[in-house]
Target: Chromosome partitioning protein
Amino acid sequence: MHRPLAVTADRDLLDDLLRVAAAAGVELDVAHEAAQARPRWRTAPLVVVGADLADALAATGPPPRQGVLLVTSDPADPSMWRRCVAVGASAVLELPDAERLLVDEFAEAAEPSSRAGAVVCVAGGRGGVGATVLAASLALTAARSGSRTLLVDADPLGGGIDVVLGQEEATGARWPDIVGREGRVSYAALQGALPTFGELTVLSWHRGEPMRIPREAMRAVLEAARRGCDLVVVDLPRFVDAGAEEALSRSGVALLVVSADVRGVLAAGQALAGVREQAGDVRAVVRGGSLDPAVVAQSLGVPLAGVLPEQRGLAEALDRGDAPPLKRTPLGRFCGELLAGLA
Model:
């Protein structure tokens, strides 16, 4: 695989570029002279040209291409934009101010988006209504159909969604190992760190003291998943905190699971207010009760996504440590139909 190319003879600038590339998990090819850049000019996914060699490189007449950046540590140089045009760069990045942007550029060059992962958030209208089981079942269904899927447990008080999957003992990172991350994260590195079963990767909680998910950490995870997954399912907490807000703002659809009784609808109305502030598309999944599902959705003012079926033996299977039974079951059929409708 071709690596990004740095064109500079400035040792201090090169040290900065190597440090920024390391932060992105990327190795660089280096041309210390303008002529050395020519053989790799077309093949490098990204070319970063130091201001010190910009004029010399322009004199070699490099062919036009996308993905060229001019980098400088001297923002006061009035000739910088002339050099930018001369080498065909799309932008001038001034270090150290533009380091975060350059990390993203290096990471994108090394791991371009291969997928366009859709984000589906699942929230409960009240506790115990089955939102976590639905989130896990949707993720399992998608993964078993061949879609690369990330299941994100955003509820620190939910006991861990890995338990719902029957994978409590699976080795791999949990949220406490991830919460300090921000900026660009490679999905390959993320998937390698988390418990993964076939096409399903899971980011769950530990059983220790709960903590909040920083907005930056949720953003880093979802951005990585967007590049590397087909589907991301996020199980939200009842209270919409900063991490949940970030997930909802990036969602294609948010599903609110509602119990079809008066108290359930009233509780769901309160939960809906927080969800609706962040998500553009909110739909109700109604769990059977005394009220008509269509009336429940209408009273909440959201479309009806479907009626969650009752499944005999589901609670017993979960208590045994088994994943939700989906093969040839009402829940499995419902998840398949719901995913098809969302697509």
